[in-house]
Fold each of these.
Amino acid sequence: MKASQFFIATQKEAPADAEVVSHQLMMRAGMIKRLGAGIYNYMPMGLRVIRKVEAIIREEMGRAGAVEMLMPVVQPAELWQETGRFDKMGPELMRVKDRHGRDFIIQPTSEEVVTDVARQELRSYKQLPKNFYHIQTKFRDERRPRFGIMRGREFTMKDAYSFDRNPAAAAKSYETMFAAYKRIFDRFGLQYRAVAADTGAIGGDLSHEFQVIADTGEDAIVYCPTSDYAANIELAEAVALSSERGAATQALTKTATPGKSTCADVAVLLDLPLAQTVKSLVMATDEVNDKGDIVGSTVWLLLLRGDHDMNEVKVGKVEGLKGGFRFATLGEIEDHFGCKPGYLGPIGLKKPVKVIADRTVANMADFVCGANEPDFHLTGVNWGRDLPEPDLVADIRNVVAGDPSPDGQGVLAIQRGIEVGHVFYLGTKYSKAMNATFLDETGKPAHFEMGCYGIGVTRILGAAIEQAHDARGIVWPDAIAPFTVAICPIGYDRSADVKAAADALHDELQAAGIDVMLDDRGERPGAMFADWELIGVPHRVVLSDRGLKEGQLEYQGRRDAAATKVPTGEVAAFVKARLQA
Amino acid sequence: MKASQFFIATQKEAPADAEVVSHQLMMRAGMIKRLGAGIYNYMPMGLRVIRKVEAIIREEMGRAGAVEMLMPVVQPAELWQETGRFDKMGPELMRVKDRHGRDFIIQPTSEEVVTDVARQELRSYKQLPKNFYHIQTKFRDERRPRFGIMRGREFTMKDAYSFDRNPAAAAKSYETMFAAYKRIFDRFGLQYRAVAADTGAIGGDLSHEFQVIADTGEDAIVYCPTSDYAANIELAEAVALSSERGAATQALTKTATPGKSTCADVAVLLDLPLAQTVKSLVMATDEVNDKGDIVGSTVWLLLLRGDHDMNEVKVGKVEGLKGGFRFATLGEIEDHFGCKPGYLGPIGLKKPVKVIADRTVANMADFVCGANEPDFHLTGVNWGRDLPEPDLVADIRNVVAGDPSPDGQGVLAIQRGIEVGHVFYLGTKYSKAMNATFLDETGKPAHFEMGCYGIGVTRILGAAIEQAHDARGIVWPDAIAPFTVAICPIGYDRSADVKAAADALHDELQAAGIDVMLDDRGERPGAMFADWELIGVPHRVVLSDRGLKEGQLEYQGRRDAAATKVPTGEVAAFVKARLQA
């Protein structure tokens, strides 16, 4: 490919609304162009990356036995009504009426359509397992689209759906996809982690996110550097920080803490470690009758160590809170504690509440908590002596770096990641809702066991850039770079020798199957180099009259500090040797 | 590829709503699956054809210097309001509101978006010519979707848009695309014609449709077998069938023709050739004031030979009718002719009308027409003697087979076609509406000269099947067949020899870059052969134990009447030799 046959549209400045570096660099490199909020044109330079990402996905999905099809963007509402998602999903599901007033949706995913295909096409257990996937335009009407294509409204996703005869077979399909995803992300050349994720109401442990590591990532990834353990922050298990409760050594004492309504302030005032304090969070659950009216509420007191944060997903799994919970109202708090937030604690309640202690809190002794009296805290608090044992002990906090790994193999570390893939065991959620069955070995109808497997194709671009960039621009891995090698001839439009040598090298590399770009625009060297560094092409060869006279060209990898001189005749072999496998 | 890794879903019966053969065969071959009216899933077998069509298009578009990008499916209404199409387009433009109530459309084409890209990105004449294209999902909310994917609502289209500095350069871009389209359709292996088409308000002669020849096609293609002339029926010029008017030989006579209100009936009654009769069609145009109120109307009498049909497109180009016309009302007709339709004619009018004679009618003598009196016609009618010369003489009819070719090189023939591609010179229609300019050689802003170039990717599938099928199923050309070669082993699951030979042949052909399908399902021969004939794979190799013992396999091309025995060792070479270039 030559630049004159392509479209290069680099810019000096990123637009003001580009908040994150990947958005800024994609705009500057001319890879995307904004059309509306969260809606982008993929310019030729960006589309090349997408196509390479898609090609790798296709190859590995095919290798894993998945079959590609194409499901429509505009889907009839009827199917979405069968699963209830037409009504349940919020405004991020874009709804549209056709000329006859019939309801349709613009697909955000395709569970309903693929389940409809399966219930018609997969009639016998003999046709199973089957895994259908497509790579298609998706739309989610995000409330606040941002970060360029990282949280856009229209995007390209690969979504695959497996159909199996029983949970054991579904687990096997899941493992097959998990392995395929590892190959896919390995081939992208990105640093990533497959982390265990919450399975929600489905249960089990068959849910993993594929997170591209990046300091700017929105997600916290918990992992153990000395073992295989990896999970997202919602799921990562927090063990008790002491294996058993210490003995009481202090007397229960009410202490004035005027104006000190946070654990941190109290710890400073009393000159105690923050880890000696306990914070009180008050939640409520509602009992609802058949008509949907609230007929009663229960108040819950959650106790966490002062330096720990509540994990809402974990709280939502505690018995009694599974059906949904909310923060208690100020009225409920005053009614039960006789005190405003800031000085709450488990001792001296006006009305009984259910007390849930985090595992770590349950093993604390001589701790500090609110006195249920404004401007007072209690110190030297001890379970059993000063207050009854908690109603429940549960893991309700986020892990923090340094926590013991739940597998006992070391301590946990935390890094940031960007979720670009997700493999998930769906069970019979959709097949039951849509009564999608096959005839099993006994000739009886059985519901499909399903899994779904997504990769955010366009999101990969943003994640890759967040992971690897520098002051000069993007640093693509070879496998998904828009071009693998940029040939930059100095004086292409002036020197016949340079032109001949550049053309010959271009043809030689291209014939060798290398995706090469020859910059024949005749730009001056500085501008030309800056463009290809901004665009992030991983390998560059510079030709000049002087170099040719000396029998040398200059090679520089995008991550290299300096150029390497290479004898003219050896350049192709040198470049090939530098390409990542 | 092996069948066990793929998804084959043939059906014995087509659904009742499949009216045309391509729809029936695509459903039966398991290529598409209906999701809603005019909305289809592309099943794995159908998607393979789409991907092959797309690959050919991409290669040839790239060769012609067009650059691929990707424009969004959901597009902000603002751009469509700039060109007025948001309001002007009917309900086939699907409109949708986002969560904030802002208007969007689901793209039917992308002129607005690409022009918006160009006005921002193409700033100088030095960046021209430029041709951007994308292959993307389109939606048109057809009033009556039918014929499967031939007139679906959601479909895939390749649309390209060229930007040039002046009309001469735009014409060059047009020629480049025209040549690329010829290469594309040649490579598809389809019989097609590039036919001149109407340019509407743009004018000029830069509009061609690419029509796939098929007896079932909706469009009539006019061509001259002995010259290059080809045009669609709307455009094809109808010359006068006699070069000059004959002399009057008969007296004007009023003849009773009771109940004979059509030319055909009159000709039979009077025992005259139909070509001696003239039919009268009454049109009207309205004069409208600034407020849009109709302030006056003009009635037009169109005269056509009794065996000719009116061409509305041509009528719309006649001076005075260009602004739009309609059929006259019964009231207007009675008011001007004093007679109901069926016996109308140009003689003895109650009020003056504008008379337009088709070129052929203008040269007729002694003709027959209505007498403007119920149940009476006039015979022996002659221009000049019995009525004044027509106000206008124009080409207002469809050509018929046997008409002289307008290039004087022979006579015209007509065949049916299916429009699958269109190249069109747009001029400055969109660039002016959106004020899309570049700086020309003098440093002044100038509007882009544009062209647009579409190929209905999914429609190609239907058209190819309409063109080539038989009682057993589809007959694909090699280039776009879902698989090029089907290996059908008899007893794959029973005979180790058959399995080994089939696997070896599969691997050999695959290694040679041939798209081969090995049917390893273990189906009985009849069902297996029927499947691949229905699916339309162009080359088949059958292996059996008996054949292997004799050292022979059977090859049969999809169009061949019988199989050919081929020595085992020569099969690969034999198949390769049979592949279309």
Amino acid sequence: MEIERLTDAARDNLLADLPRWRLGADGASIHRQFRFTDFSQAFAFITRVALLAEQQNHHPEWSNVYNRVDINLTTHDAGGLSERDRVLAHSIDRLVA
Amino acid sequence: MEIERLTDAARDNLLADLPRWRLGADGASIHRQFRFTDFSQAFAFITRVALLAEQQNHHPEWSNVYNRVDINLTTHDAGGLSERDRVLAHSIDRLVA
């Protein structure tokens, strides 16, 4: 299945739809930072995101330092943002809603 | 408990003792990259490292992109490398030995 990159208009819609995510400097990714009380809480979240990623067959680029988790979403096969990023970002937001 | 930074000589010993780890440009951290067959294998490893980190109360700065895991170890309380980094690095190496 080919994955299409979002048009500029669709990308603007995505950003409006995901107010807690920021567009990367390259315009090809979105980013959100999460903070928890400690590593254990952060890792519980990381584990739930990992399960979402496998379920959706779409994986984040992410990093963790103790209680902080930084998540970047992009779709390499599309050369930028795609609907997959929107879906995964919404799923992640629901975990911490 | 105060955590002491390793002396330069002790740091050289640590590096000799951990041939798969590289000293960071700042001289205050060590780094190793791991590659797996897919995200599932990478995340299994990530989970095991998380358990080690909690057990040792010493946590990595790390990132993951699909099958790749990058781990940086440093001891902020010591302002550089300490014995905690040596211990955690050895524990991580044993997971993939």
